[in-house]
Structure formats: C-alpha cells, structure tokens
Design a protein that fits this description.
The complex is a heterodimer of chains A (222) and B (226).
Chain A lengths: L1 H19 L1 H20 L6 H30 L3 H7 L4 H30 L9 H26 L5 H29 L5 H26 L1
Helix pairs in contact in A: 1-5, 2-3, 2-5, 3-5, 3-6, 3-7, 5-6, 5-8, 6-7, 6-8, 7-8
Chain B lengths: L3 E10 L2 E11 L4 E5 L6 H9 L6 E6 L7 E4 L11 H11 L5 H11 L15 H13 L5 E5 L7 H16 L3 E5 L3 H7 L2 E6 L2 E7 L2 H5 L3 H6 L3
Parallel strand pairs in B: 3-7, 3-8, 5-6, 6-7
Antiparallel strand pairs in B: 1-2, 1-4, 8-9
Helix pairs in contact in B: 2-3, 3-4, 4-5
The chains are: A mainly alpha (222), B alpha/beta (226).
C-alpha cells in the first residue's frame, strides 16, 4: 500500500510536470546558461579549472535544483489539492517520498542534460572509467539535495516569499552534502579515488531521509 | 457508538481562540448542518475533523472503521488543472486504493455529467464543470464520513442539483455527513441534526425540527446573540 501510494504520487508529479514543463524548462535553461557563461568568464584550458570544476558543477545543480524544488509543494496549493491529499488515506511519509522521487528524477534529468555541456566547454578530461563513479556521486548528491529540498518545500509552501525562503533555508543545510559531492566530483574528474566523501554522502542521505520521513507529518499538519 | 466524538476542542490562531471547548457527538448515519456566521469557526472545525489541522487542546475520535474513509469538499476544488477529468479521478481512486479506479472514475464522470469531456484538461473546463468534477472527486470512494464546507456556495444550478442528489443518496445509504453552510434552506432540508456555532462555541446542538424548516431564522433568533 505504502509503495503503491509513493508510486502514484511520483507518477502524478512527473506527469503534471511533463504537461506544463514549467520547472523543467526553467532549470535546464538556467543550468546550461550558467555553465556557458562561466566558461566564457574563465579560461577553460587552465589547470585551475580542474580544481574547482566539481564546485562549479554542483553549485549549478544546487541552483537549478531550487527551481525544481520550489514547484514541488507549490503545485499542490493550486485549488487546495494538498488538503485533498492530506484528508486521503495517503500517509505524509508516502506523500513526501513520492514527491522526493519525482524531484529526484527531474533534477537528475536536468543534470544529465547539462553534464555534456560542462564536459565540452570546460575541457574536462573524460573517459569511460569516469562514467560510473560520476553517476554514483550524481545519484547520492542529487538525493541529498532532493530530500532536504522537498522537506523545506513543504515547510515554506504557505509563505508569501517562498521562492526566496526556500533557497535561504535549504542551502545552509545542504552545505555538508554539497562539499562532499564537490570533493568527490573533483577527485573523479582528476582520476583520483573518491575517498571518505562517498561514505559521508551515503550517511548524510540515510540520516536526512529518515529525519524527513519522521518530521514531514508535523511540517504538513502542524 | 458515535461515528465522531469531539471532546473539549480548542483551536488558537496566535492568541485568538477560533474554537472554544467544542463538544460534539455525531451518531453514524446522521446528517449534521453546521451553521454559524462568518468567522464562527465552521471551517476550522471541519479542517480539524478532516485531519488538516490539529486542535490546540482536546481530542477528536473517529470510529475505527470510518477512519481513512473521509470525503472532503472544501473551498478549493482540489483538482489538478494540468490533468484531464479522467486522470484526476483515476489519481484519487488510486490514492484511495479502489479496486478498479479507472472504472470507478468513468462511473463518476457519468454521474456528474462529464463523461463526454473525460479527456479534457481540468483547466479548460468552465467553472460549473470544474465544480461538478470536484463533487465527483469528493464522492469517488463512497466515503463513510462526508465533510462539506460551504458546498453550495458559487455552484451553478446544475452543480447544485448534482450535489443535492448525491448528498441525498449518501444520507439514504446511512453515511455520516457534516456540512457547514450559510444556505439555511438547502442545509435544513437535508439535515437530520443541526449545530449552531457562535464565536467558536457550540450554542445549540439537536435534531432538526419542523419549526426550523418553517422559519429558517428561528434558530439564530432563539440561540444566536442577535
């Protein structure tokens, strides 16, 4: 029952987004434009770019993520849909996990589209051996952004300035996960081992997923 | 055993008590008209019963078998504009774990007179059609407890007729219905019981009498503050 509800919510969110493409268009355009602009601002051939390439990539993902996450619960405010969901037998946890999965899929797709732009315009050394480690860090890092972002999207959904409040609240919480993802990405692109950051990111994902599932009912109903 | 027991419920918004020591016992199969002027606390009470808000004090008990089978028709239509009428109802059918959500959605679209436009997006519907679809959504899972917040407000004639027929059908099948409304005539014709809320307090609760039907202002004159 729980998994079926999670699936229904996730499919509904993705279906709605595919119809309107509001968050998708905004976040893809944003991430590609930012990567292009920075490539013109810096000299992509320099050695320094390899040192902060991970940081640049994840900052872009984090900002693009805010555009996706802002829409997550805001979509439910239209016509008071959130009330109907809370009054239904769907548990807050199922609602949260379903929404988090939809956000994850959407943000991951944005990342997959913008990654080639990054590789191309920053002269990133890219080999087949880097694909799997890069996918692994993208999955773990994206889930970290998504799980925190979805919870705070629920928290800020009733605020008038939610577009401003969500990033203000979410980014400080994301800092540990972002630093890990940036470090691992830089290591992967340099051909170095992923290091301790990977274990930290796994632990971060597990702990924050559990915390979010526990607290989401309080966030939604009060 | 009562379908719903509301014991000493208080609800504060900041320092303002929107509900004050509300006590209500609602028997299974009764239709309660929750009356009161604007700001009396009707919507707050319905939101607490629906689980959308928690009471500041007091408790609400819903009979075990009725939990998870609440239908809510609130101020918003609670439909996704970017989904079709059929997709909206199928979605809620799945969330309520109905055995065949697609078949039930088709039946309900027929019932509310929207079968012809089942594949139309909700945002493209007229106001009346959206309201009928919202009625279909609220009744989709044949709820044991139905909560209606100002159900007749802003409905067109056809939507009112559909809603009245569905409420009567539910009432005749022994479902518990609680509706808050300003439209005394419609509410009193459907109700078996009446509760009057005034400044967050229940000032009268009892069976609906013929006198109330004959003179709809009698209740307010007798129990109200003016």
């Amino acid at each position: 029952m729980f998994l079926r509800q999670v699936w229904t919510i996730a499919v509904k969110d993705l279906h709605s987004e595919l119809r309107t493409k509001e968050a998708w268009n905004a976040s893809v355009a944003f991430s590609v434009v930012i990567l292009l602009l920075f490539s013109f601002a810096f000299d992509p051939s320099s050695e320094q770019i390899r040192e902060f390439s991970g940081g640049l990539l994840w900052m872009t993902y984090a900002f693009a993520g805010a555009l996706v996450l802002n829409r997550s619960f805001a979509r439910e405010m239209q016509n008071d849909c959130l009330d109907a969901l809370i009054a239904s037998p769907v548990s807050s946890a199922a609602l949260f996990v379903g929404k988090a999965l939809a956000n994850f899929a959407l943000l991951f797709a944005v990342e997959v589209v913008s990654l080639p732009v990054f590789v191309l315009f920053y002269n990133v050394p890219w080999g087949t051996g880097q694909i799997l480690p890069m996918l692994l860090v993208m999955v773990l890092g994206t889930w970290a952004l998504t799980v925190i972002g979805t919870l705070f999207s629920a928290l800020t959904v009733n605020l008038r300035l939610r577009e401003l409040m969500l990033p203000t609240l979410v980014y400080p919480m994301m800092i540990p996960a972002l630093i890990s993802a940036m470090t691992i990405t830089t290591n992967v692109l340099a051909g170095d081992p992923m290091g301790f950051g990977l274990r930290f990111l796994v632990g971060f994902d597990i702990i924050f997923t559990l915390l979010a599932v526990v607290f989401v009912d309080t966030v939604l109903v009060g | 055993m009562n379908a719903l027991e509301i014991s000493d419920v208080w609800k504060y918004y900041g320092d303002f008590p929107a509900l004050r020591e509300v006590k209500l016992n609602i028997a299974p199969g009764s239709t309660l008209a929750l009356l009161g002027r604007n700001g009396a606390g009707k919507t707050t009470l319905l939101r607490i019963i629906a689980g959308l808000s928690r009471p500041s004090r007091g408790s609400i008990k819903i009979q075990g078998t009725l939990q998870g089978s609440i239908g809510l028709l609130g101020h918003g239509i609670a439909l996704y504009d970017e989904l079709t009428a059929f997709e909206n109802l199928t979605l809620f059918g799945r969330l309520y774990d109905l055995p065949d959500p697609r078949k039930r959605a088709e039946e309900m679209l027929e019932r509310v007179g929207l079968a012809r436009v089942r594949d139309g997006l909700a945002r493209e519907f007229s106001r009346g059609m959206r309201q009928r679809l919202a009625v279909g959504r609220a009744f989709l899972h044949d709820p044991e407890v139905l909560l209606l917040d100002e159900p007749f407000t802003a409905l067109d004639d056809r939507a009112i007729a559909v809603l009245q027929s569905m409420i009567k059908d539910m009432r005749d099948r022994g479902r518990t219905i609680i509706m808050s409304t300003h439209q005394l005539r419609e509410a009193l014709e459907l109700a078996s019981h009446v509760a009057l809320l005034q400044r967050g307090q229940i000032v009268h609760m009892g069976e609906r009498t013929q006198q109330m039907l004959d003179d709809t202002g009698w209740l307010y004159r007798t129990y109200g503050d003016n």
